[in-house]
Amino acid sequence: MKTPSARNVPALLQALHQEGFTGTVRVSGAPGGTIHLRDGRVGAIETPGAPTATSTLLASGRIDDDAWLAACAAEPDADRLGHHLEAAGLIGAAELEVVCTAAVYDGAFAMALSPPGDWELTDREPTLLARPGVDPRPLAEETTRRIALLSRLRGPAGDLARGRPAPVVDRAHPASGGGLTPRHRELVDSANGRRTPRDLAFARGRGLYAVMLDLIRLEALGAVRWETMTVPEGRPSTAPRLPPQTATSADEPSQRAGPLPRRRPGGGFPTGDFGAKDGE
Amino acid sequence: MGERMTALQDSLDRLLDSPGVTGVALIDAVTGLTYATAGDAAQVGTGTEVSDLAALISERLGEAGAVGELESVVMTSRRRHQVLLSVPRSAGDPLLLAAGLDRDRANMALALRSLGDRAREVLA
Lengths: 280, 124
Description:
Oligomer: heterodimer
Number of helices of chain B: 3
CATH architecture of chain B: 2-Layer Sandwich
Distance between the termini of chain B: 19 Å
């Protein structure tokens, strides 16, 4: 099983999808992350930039800690943990599918907010999985859509993610006090001027992208103040790029055997994470 | 989301048994991500359109003094109904069940009641 030379992570995932690869892609960088594939589909993404399905279930209180620990003890192989959670009546199969799928898309979004480093392929590592998993192409397309939407609504998504929203205490402004949904009210209560959207996502057990969208709405309503920080390097494009030909041949270097990422002359990063640098 | 039948897909497929229902989709009300569809997905609109519409209505209702989360939206055209129903969840961001109905075959009152009841079972 060989992997065609990939120019960026979306192209790599697409090639691995065609191979039906089961294993792990480790992407370095800030935040970087670990992408778990099963039969070529993305089953989970673990990144410091966004809560995993496990974090979401526990932080939101959907499954309590004791029940979770008991389930993990009863089913040591995390790949099969979902079945055990369902069998134990802790969560329905459809709801678990929603939670795990949402976490995959959110993890991809978080990883795409800053330029990636190197990547390497390793063996399967057990984890709680979305089943049957997400195909790489719609994953890359949705990631691109999300970043484009945030940029259109509020500015560069990477800069936005580094901001620290604070609640607006303005009695004269009706939206800053009442008129908010419970979800928005909880988010305003959690924002304290020190937490980033990522911090709020982990604290509330919600997706990073969902939190950022809600913060944009809350800012428009005058309920939060959200000053963003600009960094010179910006963010990479998330437009999926595929190698010229997807068929493998014996002459092509194996992605696992040789130096994995391609570097640009004079550049420090391989091109793209869930896309490529410089809008390519 | 994939070729293999999942619990969620099976759950949505069962909603097509309701009289007049031609298409359904389960959509994240915040992100617009479509988790699954059944029947004619084009009848219910894209996930982003549905979530944007629900968010807009919810905000306007909030500005008008309404309290709580949006429960349902019904839009009617000459041939079709489009229904958005909030899917109850004990935790996590709200979900929307979007359904397209054929006006000639659907009794709106019965369809709303049936979809409302079954929306509670979508995540089982």
